[in-house]
Structures are given as structure tokens and as C-alpha cells.
Amino acid sequence: MTHAEPLVRFSGVQKTYDGEQLVVRALNLDIQRGEFLSLLGPSGSGKTTTLMMLAGFESPTSGDILLNGKQITGTPPHKRNFGMVFQNYALFPHLTVGENVAYPLTVRKVPKAEQAERVKKALDMVRLSGMSDRLPARLSGGQQQRVALARALVFNPQLVLMDEPLGALDKQLREHMQIELKELHRQLGVTFVYVTHDQGEALTMSDRVAVFNEGIIQQLDGVENLYETPSNRFVAGFVGDSTVLTGTVQGTGTQAALQLPSGQWLRGTNVNNAPQGAPAEACIRPERIVLHPAHTTGALNALAATVAGAIYYGDHLRLMCDIGAGQQQACVKLPLTRADANPHPQPGEKVLLEFPPESTRIYTL
User: What pLDDT score was predicted for residue 88?
Assistant: First the structure.
């Protein structure tokens, strides 16, 4: 067996519930040992169904799921030895924290003395030392989620599956738990497969992200590539913010231009090799747009605009700019520093927006 063999391989997996509509279609996915992989996508995109097939709660309609090179489609969930964490915690209310965490060990007939030791270690790991005698109802949501995590890790699973585990927590606690989970993953080296519809969460925590839409993985990549070089219009729109301009493709090959209805051209990367004259959209991240005073000369790939509004975010300012010609407003992100004495453009002010060609990506419609 070579070292490069993935821990899990989905090969040609399809899933339909009604025999007609495919919820997951032709899924080929390798999950590497020790990685933190997020399955990201809107509701109904197939990400949770994929996780449930891996867990064994759903069976594929066709195709194979291999674990360590062996077929597991017929293996029941409890024999797969995977840790599971759900959004609703699923703790036993009548059992103490310690008994909840010990449950997987009891089922596996681990001796009592070893159970106590492993439960203590698991609770230490999620920073709940000394809480083992409490009942779940006495804990906060974040603490209950930590108990569920300790229970998923206590029997040393080779894979931990998580389905929107932080969805019920408030924003601040959720962000805190994201950092903790990532750190725990780094310490343990266990493989994590994490389902979320929150792109910020996926980017913060993952080594790689599989972006799902309509039962198909649209892009599987490291977080930086996903953000900087989305492979199609869906990924560009779903991951991060984008300013979007519509027009037609001018030129051929990867370096082409978008001609706007106004007749102006914007150069950029023709991601999907759209042919000359094809309707297309150019997407650019708001922080990549360069803002110039209206009278600036020599700015290339630039459009005149009028500031329509400004939204203050603390660390940055977002300007909404009208560029006319039936285009959506352009969003420009300006970093703010305490020393920032520059007066920012006010609503009604004329500006020039420069779209650097290397950050402007053109997608077919």
C-alpha cells in the first residue's frame, strides 16, 4: 500500500431519493489522511448527503466508497468507527457529562479504569476539566458542543465527521470555537470532514474545501486558491464578495477583455476560455479595486464612477459606487487605520475605479 493512498475515496458515487432527481451526481472525491476538509455549499447542494453516505446513514444509489482501499458501502455506521458531531449536540439529557463522553467506550466494552482515564483526557482536550459530574442542561450551548466533540474524539476515531456543528452558537462564540477546533485538529492529526454553508467558516478552518452546487463539486482546492482563483462563476459568487460587471468577451485565449454595453473594455483572465462575443461577467474582489480621484490620468483598466454610499466596518470602509450602463453597483473595500487622516470619498463624489487585469476574472454565463 503506497503512502499516497487516500483515507477515503468516493468513486462515481450517485444518490437519488426518488429515482429521478440526483442529489449527488458522479462524485469523485479523495479525502487525505489528517486533513481538515470542508464540504461547502448552499442548502440542497449535496454536501450533507455526501457526509451521511460517508457516515453510513445513507447508501449510495451507485458508485463506491472506499476506506483505506476497502469498500465500506455495506458497513453499518457503528462499525465504521467514525466520530460524529451534529448541530443539535445529541447528548443524553439524563447522563452526566462524563457518562455522555464515556458512552462510545461503554458500547465498545472498554474496561472501566481505562474509560475513566480516556474520558478525563478527552474533557481536558476540549477544556472542560472538572465538569464530568454535571448534567448537560446545566451547560451553555458552547459547552454542550464541546461535550459532543469530546464524545466524538474519546475512542480515537480515524475520521471525525461534523455537520454544521457550530450553527446554533452566537457569532462570537462560533468564531472562538472555529479557532479551537482548528487548533485541536492540528494537535491530534485526525482527519476532519466538516459540512458548512458558511464560507467564512470554511476558509478559516480548512486545509481544503470542496464547493458543492447541484450535487456536483464545483471546485476542490486549498483555501487561498479558492478565494484567489475561483474556477467558475458559481464559486466566484459563493466564496467571498465580488464586484460583478456584465458584457461580452473580446479576444480569445486566457488573456481577453470584457466589453461593457457602454463600449469600454476591461482586460482580465478569461477563466473558462469563453469565445469572442460570448456573454460574460467579470468578477473582482472589492479589496483589489484601486480607488483614484476622478481627475487621475494614466490609470489603465479604469471606469468612472460616483460614490453612492459608504458603510463603516471598523477595520475597513465599503464604498458602493454607481458605474452606470445598467451595471450593478461596484463595491470597493478600503482598509482603515487609526492614522488614516485621508478624507474618504463622500456620497455624490466622482471617482475613478481601476480594475487590475491580474485580479479581474472573466466567466461565461
Answer: 80
